[in-house]
Write a structure and sequence with these properties.
This protein is α+β, with helices and mostly antiparallel strands and 414 residues long. The chain has 3 domains: 204 residues, no CATH class; 61 residues, Roll (SH3 type barrels); 85 residues, 2-Layer Sandwich (Alpha-Beta Plaits). Helix content is 62%, strand content 12%. A 5-stranded antiparallel β-sheet has the order 4-3-2-1-5. β7 and β8 form a beta hairpin.
Length: 414
């Protein structure tokens, strides 16, 4: 009940002001020489004047000048009470509600917006109270200009705070998912902050009547000159953005870029550092990274193996069929091998061997486990070939010579 009594007067006063604004006829047209006001500002001033007139009915004996000071104080107190309601009740409820949601974005967003919203209410209240005083035209223009600057400044502050909360949430998610963009989040936040600050200042200057067209033209010419003077730097910067957006690799991945193959150690604004297999370090400009074909060797979904086993030419057909079946059985017996991808066939007559071709896919992309599997299968195939009385071929050549020539050679040797 105390809380309702505390806020019943402000709610009643604002409601009466709104009702009076809706019932009373529109104000007369301004004099031709009076400065034009924006529609929203004119309506706000009209509401304040009607509120003061309505309030004056309750204090008819007070001097008009003194009453405007009293009305100024009442408007200021109403602004304080409204700020108290929004910050201590509405935002308190919103923050409690945010604690029950799964996402952490609202947990950062509502606290970030609380101070700018409270400041906006107080700024509007202060300038509304000053408007009630009915100052001189010169002071009125100063108040209007100050109100424009203050309101736009607070709104810009709120947008920057809200954007910072959203970017902090995105950075947190990027770190949790080990995304490459997490490396660039501090730079992105600073860049967007500077961009928002510049846009806000330009809007404030434009609202005050400044000619920003000339400034933008000179800024464009200066930006063109800077771009021509720093082509390589800008190309590397755009290359880093391409890496962030496409995310072809992250720190710790083994990649092959052009002729360089190694582990990615750092992704910077200008360059990417790769530790090669011989432990040397390559610093590669990002414009080259973005233009070269990138092979990420750490993102295998599976590994395909293809091998050729050569047996000697004295292998009989029955022995060949038996050893092919045995090799297929060994490969299909491994749980890490996808049985649908196993192919084992006597494929070719080689120059010095009868070639058996085997191909299969290993489900686990881990390189060490893949090599362990290949070693286990190679040893099993060696034992199977030995058990069947066969032998692996090695490069040999057989020369057939005419018998007279052979007799001459042997006779010479003897």
């Amino acid at each position: 009940m105390n809380l309702l009594r505390r806020f019943s007067l402000p709610v009643l006063v604002l409601g009466c002001a709104t009702v009076l604004h809706a019932q009373d006829p529109a104000p007369a047209a301004a004099a031709p020489d009076a400065p034009a006001k924006p529609a929203i500002a004119s309506q706000a001033t009209d509401i304040l004047e009607r509120f003061v007139s309505w309030l004056h009915h309750f204090m008819p004996g007070i001097d008009d000048a003194l009453f405007h000071w009293i009305a100024c104080g009442i408007v200021f107190v109403l602004a304080i009470l409204l700020r108290h309601v929004i910050t201590n009740i509405i935002f308190h409820y919103l923050k409690k509600l945010a604690e029950k949601t799964e996402t952490t974005l609202d947990d950062k967003l509502f606290p970030a917006l609380e101070a700018p919203v409270a400041a906006l209410i107080m700024v509007l209240g202060i300038f509304a109270a000053l408007t009630v005083l009915q100052l001189s035209p010169q002071m009125d223009r100063l108040v209007n200009g100050g109100a424009t600057v203050a309101v736009l400044g607070v709104i810009m502050w709120g947008v920057i705070k809200a954007g910072g909360a959203v970017l902090d949430h995105m950075e947190e998610v990027a770190h949790e998912r080990h995304m490459t963009v997490a490396t660039f989040m501090p730079l992105i936040k600073k860049t967007l902050f500077a961009f928002g600050l510049i846009v806000g200042l330009l809007l404030i200057a434009d609202s005050l009547g400044a000619k920003i067209g000339v400034f933008l033209t000179s800024l464009g010419i200066g930006g063109l000159a800077f771009a021509l003077a720093a082509q390589d730097t800008i190309a590397n910067l755009f290359g880093s953005f391409v890496v962030v957006i496409d995310q072809p690799f992250k720190v710790g991945d083994v990649v092959k870029i052009g002729t360089s193959q190694g582990t990615v150690e750092d992704i910077g604004l200008r360059s990417t550092k790769i530790r090669l297999t011989d432990r040397s370090l390559v610093v590669m400009p990002n414009k080259m990274v973005s233009s070269e074909a990138i092979v990420n060797l750490s993102r295998f979904t599976s590994r395909r193996v293809e091998q050729v086993f050569g047996l000697t030419y004295d292998t009989k057909p029955d022995q060949m069929e038996a050893i092919v079946r045995e090799i297929r059985r060994l490969i299909e017996g491994e749980p890490e091998v996808d049985p649908a991808t196993v192919h084992v066939y006597f494929r070719d007559y080689g120059e010095s061997s009868l070639d058996i071709w085997a191909a299969y896919v290993v489900k686990n992309p881990d390189f060490a486990k893949h090599l362990e599997l290949r070693q286990r299968l190679n040893l099993g195939i060696m034992r199977a070939v030995e058990a069947h009385g066969l032998a692996f071929a090695y490069p040999t050549q057989t020369m057939h010579l005419p018998e007279p020539l052979v007799g001459k050679i042997t006779g010479q040797k003897s």
